[in-house]
């Protein structure tokens, strides 16, 4: 049982690779020539260097039975708009076509809750919800929506594809880091004097990996499954981090107009003259809408685990510190 994994060097993908090896699968991982291999070091896998839009990608999949298409370009910077559509939309189209040509039996496509959108006024939503694409904030969310539509269309045409929509994963190996990891890092570095009144759904990244394997084994073709766990306000997350680290949580909330103004000024005024912005405007715009999700379907149909979030947070904190991401402790 050989699985082909895209995005295996990343946060979710590296955990998927590890779980597949633990469960007895052989793994071939597609990696970009410029990618860091730190998350795959020491693992007994085959590595293929290339990219999602390679017209001969199918040849690398020829001896594989399954595909996990985890790779995506994640950026909230407006300057990366074209890259988002090139990798997330066109790349997904090419990867799924390659899988069909290579005779892949079943594909698990990693979408995102970003593609689903958000409920009105912070309402918790499930797989049946879909925000209109024009209501999705930023090109990252729009690109993930369009990529998911490609996967759905391919499934409707007979390709065996299951879609998973992770929320915000937490845990070790967050090498880049992700936006959630960045929140943890900024807290650890004492760079968070205040917070926005917003909220997210969080899940242990190892449960996300397990959800991918369960989707392969039990998922219904063409269906999507939200891989999520706990809905928390940002303040509640910071309080949990405070309990783990003994670092005081910020007590001041800021109105949305303040970070929106800073982000707009940095991206629209400073960035064009060569200054590196620190806060993406689309990231702040997203944070004005709580993003809460219900994983009941994945729990019921797949058996998605719901591991304690404080364990994932502690493991993330320990990993960041042990790997030199925090130097001011």
TrEMBL record:
This is 3-beta hydroxysteroid dehydrogenase/isomerase. One of its GO terms (molecular function) is aldehyde dehydrogenase (NAD+) activity. It comes from the Bacteria. Residues 4-226 form the NAD-dependent epimerase/dehydratase domain. Pfam families: Epimerase. InterPro entries: Epimerase_deHydtase, Hopanoid-assoc_sugar_epimerase, NAD(P)-bd_dom_sf, NAD(P)-dependent_oxidoreduct. SUPFAM superfamilies: NAD(P)-binding Rossmann-fold domains. Gene3D superfamilies: NAD(P)-binding Rossmann-like Domain. NCBIfam families: HpnA. GO terms for cellular component: cytoplasm. The lineage of its organism: Bacteria, Bacillati, Cyanobacteriota, Cyanophyceae, Nostocales.
